[in-house]
């Protein structure tokens, strides 16, 4: 994912499916360096990690 898309997802009132290493996450915060973000694991809300934005993947759901 690129910085611009990550920023759009964080700013949006909609919920997007995003994964990090195959694990579903929420993007909590984009850092000023524009390369990293803090993500929260969906299955364990208390667990957070700082990750490279380039390693985030937007999942497209087919209905």
UniProtKB/TrEMBL annotation:
Q: Which GO terms describe its biological process?
A: asexual sporulation; sporulation resulting in formation of a cellular spore
Primary residence: other
Question: Coiled-coil stretches, from where to where?
Answer: none
Keyword vocabulary terms for this entry: Sporulation
A single GO cellular-component term from the record reads: endospore-forming forespore
> Where does this one sit in the cell?
Spore core
- Of which family is this protein a member? Belongs to the SspH family.
Query: What is this protein called in UniProt?
Result: Small acid-soluble spore protein H (Minor)
What organism does the UniProt record list as the source? Lysinibacillus fusiformis
Q: What is the lineage of its organism?
A: Bacteria, Bacillati, Bacillota, Bacilli, Bacillales
């Amino acid at each position: 994912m690129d910085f611009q898309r990550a920023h759009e997802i964080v700013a949006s009132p909609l919920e997007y499916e995003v994964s990090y290493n195959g694990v579903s996450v929420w993007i909590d915060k984009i850092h000023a360096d524009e390369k990293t973000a803090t993500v929260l694991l969906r299955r364990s809300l208390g667990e957070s990690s700082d990750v490279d934005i380039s390693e985030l993947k937007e999942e497209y759901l087919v209905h």
